[in-house]
Design brief:
Helix content is 62%, strand content 0%. It is an all-alpha fold. The protein has 2 domains: 10-73, no CATH class; 93-140, no CATH class. The longest helix has 14 residues, at 127-140.
Length: 141
Amino acid sequence: MQRKKVDVDVIMDVLEALLEAQPHSTFVQSLYRQYQERGGLSKKQLEGLYNKSLKVNSIPANKLATLEAVILKRPTRYKSAPPPPKPMYEKDERIGQMMEAILAKYPQHKRVLFLKAKYDNNETLTPAEILEVERFTKVLK
């Protein structure tokens, strides 16, 4: 974070004023320590600091306005909902219809019966097996 003037630090001024007003507040003490160690606070932490400092009358309004401007300048991060789970295997309805058509004409066709059982058990059909079903369908027509 690049600061324009190093000697003007509104966040530190607000933190020090809050520490004077509420010396036993563990929240303010932890924010003060984090700000000294890391050099900055998150947007949520700054919002908490702002809400605490609104209750203290000794903090000047211009410092509060500057702190509010710093908070508004920060981006708000949202946690998006995870996408719904997809099924591992999606059946190709076209292949299922082809197998049904073949079995309607030849109900004892062993290879198509095997592939149909595999299809019904949600197992993936290899491209060679799909080609085989398509070839059987072409022969029927």
